[in-house]
Specification:
two-stranded antiparallel ribbon, about 25% strand, about 220 residues
């Protein structure tokens, strides 16, 4: 039986807002098909698009450089740290608790795995609710995941940290340890608790601490 792949990324669209205060992407033509007619043989057309976009748009990956000046940027992360990772899902939907603490992960073997936190918050994507009262990890949960060897941590929420906390302890703990973060995931309800791999690879843009990814799971 062939592998099944499940897309876990939001579509990037002109004018959409991922995070309040960060400008929406501007998607347009650099060369339209109509304009291309002047450059090619009759009946041959091409489209070349253009996008003006902040790096924190859609479903994106945070590298250590996002938080630390001396950290690796997205171009320096080895593919082995981003592609085909053994993964687990931790489900906290319906708990009514915003701060997801270390005990939520206690039943999982996270060593060497991508840990995807399914809060269900993605259902609010492209609504005002998405920006208010989102679930996040506690500082203690980040330390627990770091100390037990998680290789990557993702969440289907606005931010892995409490946005009211300017110290951003989860980003600080995980990224200092070289553990990439993926935010704004979707579709985690389609995944089993374990037995799949996770991939979230950005293009290798030098000097970028974050960048959008096409995140997906592969289920054998």
């Amino acid at each position: 039986m062939s592998d099944r792949r499940i897309d876990l990324s939001h579509v990037i669209e002109h004018g959409m807002v991922t995070y309040r205060g960060i400008p929406a992407p501007y998607v347009c033509d650099f060369m339209s098909r109509e304009a291309s007619r002047a450059h090619y043989a009759p009946g041959t057309t091409f489209h070349i698009g253009r996008i003006d976009m902040a790096a924190n748009t859609g479903t994106y990956l945070d590298s250590p450089f996002h938080r630390f000046e001396d950290g690796e940027d997205v171009s320096q992360l080895a593919l082995s740290r981003l592609a085909g990772l053994d993964a687990v899902v931790v489900r906290v939907t319906g708990s009514g608790v915003r701060a997801i603490d270390a005990p939520a992960f206690a039943a999982c073997d996270v060593s060497g795995k991508a840990v995807l936190v399914h809060t269900g918050w993605a259902r609010h994507w492209r609504t005002e609710q998405y920006f208010e009262g989102h679930p996040y990890l506690s500082a203690a949960a980040a330390i627990w995941l770091r100390d037990r060897g998680a290789s990557l941590v993702g969440i289907d929420s606005l931010n892995i940290d409490d946005t009211a906390d300017g110290q951003r302890p989860v980003h600080t703990t995980l990224l200092r340890a070289g553990i990439p973060i993926v935010e704004h995931l979707r579709g985690l309800e389609q995944l089993p608790a374990a037995g799949f791999t996770f991939t979230a690879v950005p293009p290798p843009v030098k000097g970028m601490g974050t960048f959008p990814v096409r995140a997906y799971a592969t289920i054998n």
